[in-house]
Amino acid sequence: MPPMHVAIIMDGNGRWAEGRGKERFEGHLQGVESVRTAIKSAQKFGVRYLTLYAFSTENWGRPAEEVEALMDLFCTCVVNETPELIAEGVRVRIIGDKEGLSTEVRMHLDKIERDTEGGETLTLLLALNYSSREEITRAARLWNAHPDTTFEAHLYTNGIPDPDLVIRTSGEQRLSNFLLWQAAYAEFYFTPVLWPDFGEAEFKTALDAYASRDRRYGKITNQ
Ligand code: IPE
Ligand code: IPE
Ligand code: MG
Predict the structure, then answer these.
(1) What percent of the chain has pLDDT over 90?
(2) Torsion angle, CA of 111/114/117/121, rounded to 10 degrees?
(3) Where are the domains of the chain?
(4) Dihedral angle of Cα 140, 144, 149, 155, to the nearest 10 degrees
(5) 157 C-beta closer than 6 A to ligand 1
(6) Which atom of ligand 2 is nearest to 55's Cα?
(7) Residue 164 — φ and ψ, nearest 5°?
(8) Catalytically annotated residues
(9) Best mutation site among 9, 10, 11 for ligand 2 pocket (most ligand atoms within 8 Å of CB)
(10) I want to staple 24 with a disulfide (CB 3.0 to 4.6 A). Which of 14, 31, 76, 150 is the partner?
C-alpha cells in the first residue's frame, strides 16, 4: 500500500543555485518544476494527500529580496498552475497563518482554494507562513474557547489524515518546525538530493523505502 499522505520539506534550492553560480532565486524557480513532478508522481503512485513545506515563519528572516522573490513566485505559480490543477482533479488547501501574508498573496491563495474545491484525486496542502508551534498554540487557544470539540479540529490540518511519510531533501535531518503534532508516527526519509533535482525516480525510491518499514505504533510485529 502506498502511503496515504506524504509530506515534503523541500530543501536545497539555494545550494542548487549557488553550486551553478546562479542567484538563489534561480533555485526556487527550478524548484517549481520539482513541485509539478511531485504532484504528478503522487497521483501516479496512489498518494491521496501531499503536503509541501513552501515557506516557514522563520523564513521571514531571510534577506528581503529573497522573501519578496518567493512571495512573487507564489502568486505567479498560483495563477499559472490553477487550470492544470483543476484539470488533474487536485484540491489545494493552505496550511499556515494566512493573516500574516500580504493582501495580494492572501487573495491568490484564497482564489486557488476556491477554484480547486471540487478536486477529488489528490489533496495538495501548501504550508505557507507555517510554524508548527504557532499552529499548536493557536489550536490550544481555540480549543480552550470551545472545550466541547477535539484539539485536532483546531489544527490547520483539520480533517486531513496524519502524514505517513515525511521526506526531507538536501541532506538536512531536522523538522524545522514542520508538522510536530501530526508527524508523531510518521516514517522519515532523508536524501542528500537537492529539491530541484528531486524527480519521479527519487519520489519512487522514497516510497520503496517507506514500503520496507515496519510501523508498529508501540506494539510488536504481527500483533
Ligand atoms: C528551500 O530551499 C526553499 C525554502 C525554504 C523557501 P532553501 O532556500 O532553504 O535552500 P538552501 O537550504 O539554502 O540550499
Ligand atoms: C525549511 O527549510 C522550510 C522550508 C522548506 C520551507 P529551511 O531551509 O528554512 O530550514 P533550516 O533553516 O535549514 O532549518
Ligand atoms: Mg534550506
Answers:
(1) 99
(2) 0
(3) 5-211
(4) -20
(5) no
(6) 6
(7) -85, -35
(8) 11, 59
(9) 11
(10) 14
Q: Which 3 state secondary structure label does DSSP give 127?
A: strand
The reported pLDDT for the residue numbered 203 is 98
Report how far ligand 3's centroid is from the alpha carbon of 220 (Å): 37
Distance CA 59, CA 39 (A): 23
pLDDT digits (tens, 9 = 90+) for 33-50: 999 999 999 999 999 999
Cell triple for residue 160? 486531513
DSSP 58-82: GGGGS-HHHHHHHHHHHHHHHHHHH
Mean pLDDT of 68-79: 98
The set of residues, in sequence order, having a beta carbon less than 8 Å from that of 196 and lying 6+ positions away, is: 12, 13, 16, 27, 30, 31, 33, 34
**What CATH number is given for 5-211 in this structure?**
3.40.1180.10
Amino acid at 48: R
Q: C-alpha cell of 113?
A: 482554494
